[in-house]
Amino acid sequence: MEEKLFFYYTNDLHSNFDQWSRVAGYLKEAKDMKKAENQSCWLFDIGDHVDRVHPIAEAFMGKANVQLMNDVGYDVVTLGNNEGITLDHDDLYHLYDEAKFDVVCANLQNVKGDNPPWFQPSVSINSVEGVRVGVLGLTAPFNAFYELLDWHISPPFEVLDEYISELTKHTDVIILLSHLGITEDQEIARRYDDIDAIIGGHTHHLMRTGEMINDTIITAAGKHCAFVGEVILTWDHNQKKVVNKEAYTTDITHRAKDLHTEEKLNDLVVQADKVLQEKVVTLNETIEISWFKDTPIMKKLSATLKEWTKADCAMLNAGVLLDRFEAGDVSLKDVHRICPHPINPCVVVLKGDELIEVIRASFKKEFMELQLKGFGFRGEVLGRMIYAGVEIETEIREDGQEYVKNVSMNGQPLNPDYSYHVATADTFTFGRLLPEVAKSETKKYFLPEFLRDLLAQTLKEEYESR
């Protein structure tokens, strides 16, 4: 006798609630249909469901996301870096207190004491006909951030060495919920033959029909839940093994929205507005912003960053502010709307010649006009880099481009061999945006504060009506 096991999943929603009611309708319908047919079906999430870019996630520190997953009927989830490092320790510790689903993450550890009550490395679930399915979770080991919040993430392969052999003794099928990224998923498939399926996320890769490596099927459904994923494993009860593995992703952007979920979201928006209506400052006049010019607000924000981090200088891209502040009362909601990014302050150490190269690169048109997606940035374009603590002399040449002529600090030219502490957004410590910053051997991150916390401080100190 053969039995099909159905696993539906989502990954990397990033609080894209415009799509959520479609997700909810699709998953509830799929699960109800399978149950009516007496077939085994489970719902998984692979992390980064929470993203504080949205007012609902911001106001409730992710707990509203958990409510929404409860309503849909999720069975097992793991957590991503947006759950793990954009909430302070206590908020993450209590994030899943009201969850009606299991939370698995085998490489998460609480440095301050016992792990949360909801925490489990893995769970075992049984099919209608008694197939034992072991579900293990892993998340990306960003310990430079986690350890500042009193968590530790163990290396994934060390954890797998410990748990896979144990799971094989007590389960028939092993599924890994991996918020590690496609490259790590592929390597895991090469190393661990006992894993039947790896359901992935983090790197936002979309795999329409999955990928087979050895005897493991790998899948992921992109980002923002434009697609929902499905894994189908066929178990042969006579042979006592999986005899077929399939994976698909379905575009659900055209589907009708679930009305109950829309009502819940509308209610949460109203509640979030109330939470975020706290006044930050009262402005006598409108504060204008510009992505490609020096503006007073960006100069003052960069200065705040420099002073708050006790750095030698600071640099922030003007694209972090998305809109102007209107005269009158400014609330937490306004600050969040204008600076929604889950970006932390950071200090890196750069030699003088490296800092000069970074400054030169930041004045290039292609840098300022880059439409960045990811690395915490939730804006349109990077914009002009605004500096505090350094004096920069530029000129406009015949090609219309602005070029850096001289850079000095306190009236003296930068020493090429001196190490400067440079405060900036953590965005630039990832990828290849500013290679010198990303390659710096000394990086100090400041958590749990976001740039918008420094923005609120700047508004209070520099703009409060008197």
UniProtKB/TrEMBL annotation:
<feature type="domain" description="Calcineurin-like phosphoesterase">
    <location>
        <begin position="9"/>
        <end position="205"/>
    </location>
</feature>
<keyword id="KW-0547">Nucleotide-binding</keyword>
<dbReference type="GO" id="GO:0016787">
    <property type="term" value="F:hydrolase activity"/>
</dbReference>
<dbReference type="Pfam" id="PF00149">
    <property type="entry name" value="Metallophos"/>
</dbReference>
<keyword id="KW-0732">Signal</keyword>
<dbReference type="InterPro" id="IPR029052">
    <property type="entry name" value="Metallo-depent_PP-like"/>
</dbReference>
<dbReference type="InterPro" id="IPR011240">
    <property type="entry name" value="Pesterase_YunD"/>
</dbReference>
<dbReference type="InterPro" id="IPR004843">
    <property type="entry name" value="Calcineurin-like_PHP"/>
</dbReference>
<feature type="domain" description="5'-Nucleotidase C-terminal">
    <location>
        <begin position="289"/>
        <end position="427"/>
    </location>
</feature>
<keyword id="KW-0378">Hydrolase</keyword>
<dbReference type="InterPro" id="IPR008334">
    <property type="entry name" value="5'-Nucleotdase_C"/>
</dbReference>
<dbReference type="Pfam" id="PF02872">
    <property type="entry name" value="5_nucleotid_C"/>
</dbReference>
<comment type="similarity">
    <text>Belongs to the 5'-nucleotidase family.</text>
</comment>
<dbReference type="InterPro" id="IPR036907">
    <property type="entry name" value="5'-Nucleotdase_C_sf"/>
</dbReference>
<dbReference type="InterPro" id="IPR006179">
    <property type="entry name" value="5_nucleotidase/apyrase"/>
</dbReference>
<dbReference type="GO" id="GO:0009166">
    <property type="term" value="P:nucleotide catabolic process"/>
</dbReference>
<protein>
    <submittedName>
        <fullName>Metallophosphoesterase</fullName>
    </submittedName>
</protein>
<dbReference type="GO" id="GO:0000166">
    <property type="term" value="F:nucleotide binding"/>
</dbReference>
